[in-house]
Structure prediction request, 146 residues.
Amino acid sequence: MTGPRQPRPAPWSRGLFLREGAAALALTAFVVVTGGVRADDAADRGRAVYDRCLACHAVAHDRVGPRHCGIKGRRAGGLPGFEYSDAMRAAGFTWNRRTLDRFLADPLEVVPGTTMTYDGIKDGQERRDLVAYLLSLPPCGEPRGR
Ligand code: HEC
Prediction:
């Protein structure tokens, strides 16, 4: 009457599978969470580095230099109404992590003829933090910044 019994999985294999699944999930959550926290930390530290730029720049309005709101994805020299040098207008960059990092390392070398007479941020970590901060700035017109 009774057919052959289905072999039951070894009791430990299911538990092991669940444990592995849970570990993978926990790891994913950990990476997502700490990744997010780390980006925010960098932008926070970068905000302090940005103090060195305040002599000439502000986030929300033009000073000697152009405002930095909405810089992510903007063409270099592309803010309407700001009097850029011909050199900056002709630079041909779009501002992103890589171009900002290069420019800020040595502005006068990267855009010869720029009117940004500033020696640059030589420390790589400070520069990465500063760039994270710049890229975190909201589009112009949104109330935030200084
Ligand atoms: C001595 C004044 C001065 C200081 C200090 C200065 N800048 Fe500038 N910055 C300028 C000027 C002027 C321009 C426009 C340059 C041009 O047209 O060639 C400019 C342009 C820029 C641009 C290009 C913006 C665009 O719209 O294309 C970026 C990015 C920038 N500055 C970032 C910074 C950062 C970040 C700091 C601080 C580490 C800084 N600058 C410090 C004067 C300054």
The domain at 38-136 is CATH 1.10.760.10 (Cytochrome Bc1 Complex; Chain D, domain 2). The chain is about 45% helix and 0% strand. Residues 24 and 30 are 10 Å apart (CA to CA).
